[in-house]
Amino acid sequence: MDDKKDLLILGGGLVGMTLALAAAKKGISSHVVDRADPAELTDEGFDGRASAISTASWSLFRNIGLADRLEPHACHIASIAVTDQMKPGRIDFQPESHEPSLGRMFANRELRLALFEAAREEPLIAWHSRAEIVERHRDDFGVAAILADGRRLEAALMIAAEGRGSPTREDAGISIAKWDYSHRAIIAGLVHEKPHDNVAWEIFYPAGPFALLPMLDTESGEHRSALVWTVSESDAAGTLKLGDRAFLAEVEKRMGGMFGEIRSVGPRSSFPLGFHHTARITGQRLALIGDAAHGIHPIAGQGLNLGLRDVGTLVEVLDEGLRLGLDIGDAQLLARYERWRGLDSFMVALATDGLTRLFGVPGQAASAIRRAGMGAVERMPMLKRWFMDEARGVSGDLPELLKS
Predict the structure, then answer these.
(1) Where is the FAD-binding domain (predicted)?
(2) Fewer beta carbons within 10 Å, N or C terminal of the chain?
């Protein structure tokens, strides 16, 4: 039997491993169990899988000591352009004079490398990779997971961090509201002729959003962006099968030539788009974080940031409870986490769902109304600032770890 830890984190992805590191900064120990092979997740090469890290999420990384590792790999977002089919009436979001950027873009590989390196150096984290869980146990006295090789890992609190299809959530019998958008996001890395000028583009077409996210240039000076292109499920297979030349022609058509020639495209991947939100995010000695608790459309790039807000909140709640002498799995602590995160995550989920449906309405009249609305927002500084604060994650009741 392995030594007992405070937390048993099931899922060692970006959110789960960040939780382990943030908890360790407060003296909270963790078992982290993940079925993936870290070497495969950190393979060389840029495949387009990237994440936008908001201002608040960057504060979290800085406060747990990851900023120095990550900053050399960050591409700052100088502005965000939102447009309906590249027609007049777009919104341009720009940072306040005291803010260096609206956020940072990272290749997911770089985020994983930084997290994994830090986890290997942290004595309070016991990392069990390439591990299969065959049993989960929770009772009044603690939690445990039995691995396929017979090891039994024990802790005071179980964390479900396995993502959208969380088996821990299913095992706990937590109900979930969900629906399928019948769309698929196609992801690829692009190399292009002209610089992106650190602008993140969200271009809305009736079939779905078409996002171009700025990435750092290559060492040889080639300009790069990450593409997230939403297509209907019925068109996805055909789009993925296009040859590089035909695929790039379709991409260039939707970009309106803003980056000049698209010189190459990396490996393409895709995932189905859907919405889900759990009825609750806690159970007996159990807390859900990240996509195990809420899955949203990538339309505003808030999925990972929402999970990192879960991390900051849960760590603050547990740390305060321990300082009061409470058991880390105490129901009072979990109830506070539920109250703090439940409404915020639900409102963000509803907002992204509403945007998805609003911009999916076809027709010239609908497009004209949307563009008129965006033009009005562009002319209203206070409303525009509110949208920017939401995107940066700095509104509402933030935990200390997410404050600058």
Answers:
(1) 6-339
(2) N
Mean pLDDT of 18-23: 98
Cα 357-361-366 angle, rounded to 5 deg: 125
Kindly state the tokens that stand for 378. 């562009």
pLDDT value of position 259: 94
The phi and psi torsions of 255 (rounded to 5 degrees) equal -90, -15
Query: What is the total residue count of the chain?
Result: 404
Q: Is 0.85 topped by the overall pTM?
A: yes
- Token digits for 228? 């997230």
Level-2 CATH architecture, domain 5-178+274-402: 3-Layer(bba) Sandwich (3.50)
DSSP structural state of residue 45: S
- Quick one: which of 209, 198, 195, 196 has its CA closest to 83? 209
**Distance between CA 253 and CA 162 in Å, rounded?**
37
